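Much of our argument rests on the idea that a fold can be written as discrete symbols. The record that follows shows the chain in one-letter code together with its fold in token form.
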Amino acid sequence: MRSILKIAGLALAGALMAGPVSAQQPPPPPQAWQPQPAKFGFVVGGALEFGGDDVATVLFTNGDTQDVKAGQGLGVDAGVYYRFAESPFSVRGTIGFKFVTTQAENADINMRRIPLQLVGSYHLDNGARLGIGVVRHNGIKFDADGIGDNLDFDDATGYTIEAGWKWVLLSYTGMDYTDEFGQEYSADNFGVKMVMEF
């Protein structure tokens, strides 16, 4: 009898010892959310933009033509940005230079302007971002290099919206130019931007 009780006791002890090993381990506690500090830094970028009304049409000797559009150009800019503490929002301000030229070999026909931008952005956890802001173009000039008439434009203010992932963005800018004779041109454009924050 004692042998039976001893065997039963050993079996019970073995079951109790084996139980915790075979039981499923509880999941680790979730990591506490770490508040993100505010961040201030520098930003540099570039953009390639297309669209707008024709400001001029260049005629080549071979019969080809090329239009210079009000919203077209290659731009570079630099400035500063601020990411708010414990927030998905940031704001950046930049100043840049936007330029478009033609394929003419015997003349430097171009259009140039100095863009100022103030853009607020919302950052998603997966790296996507959305932004909206105000844009102002100063020093807007069309230079025909003596082949045609030069044109000066009033400074112009418009808006921009953008969406993208990390440092690559697609943008749309709405803006109108008015030349020295009072004629208006749409400078609306679509663009591809690079925005790198340090």
About this structure: DSSP finds one helix and 13 strands in the chain. The chain has a mean pLDDT of 86. The helical segments are 2-22. The chain has one domain: 39-197.
